[in-house]
């Protein structure tokens, strides 16, 4: 299903949505886009690690601030333009019409989503804003206002992607507050269950010829 706002310019969500002959089993692979999954997680994870450890290796707030912002910016661009489109078939974007009005578009095309990639996509998308929210509370009670500015920027960038993709998945007309709460609970429960009770891999069968 490909949902988009009527009257907006159409941009292909995927360059090629066809499955080549002989590649029909790709949907059953553990990961179809392993490098995309890696870069989906590495920038946001690195930003958190640098934020936690920067005080141990450098006394310069400016250097730490710039490094974390660069990692967050790379993560925002990667998640918004690449990983969301390829891992879960979702995309959100903005355009300005001839009258100068700004319009937001939320698209969904989820007919070829790998379950493992989708789980990791949503886990990274949800957990990182929660972690930055914890950092914000620490900065607030610790009166670390200069670090609070950095945390607010991180919350804005990671939260924008989370908000955009939740709207893509559930539609712009849904009650996002209740939908997001239910969706976050569902994803956290599924991720916890998958780690605690992993499912065995299905047995492989040999190819059979047809006479």
From TrEMBL:
Transmembrane segments: 35-54, 60-79, 120-143, 149-166
Subcellular location as annotated: Membrane
Main localization of the protein described in the UniProt heading: membrane
InterPro entries: TVP23-like (IPR008564)
Membrane topology note: Multi-pass membrane protein
Assigned keywords, A-Z: Membrane, Transmembrane, Transmembrane helix
GO cellular component labels: Golgi membrane
Gene Ontology biological-process entries: protein secretion; vesicle-mediated transport
Family (UniProt): Belongs to the TVP23 family.
Name of the protein this chain belongs to: Golgi apparatus membrane protein TVP23 homolog
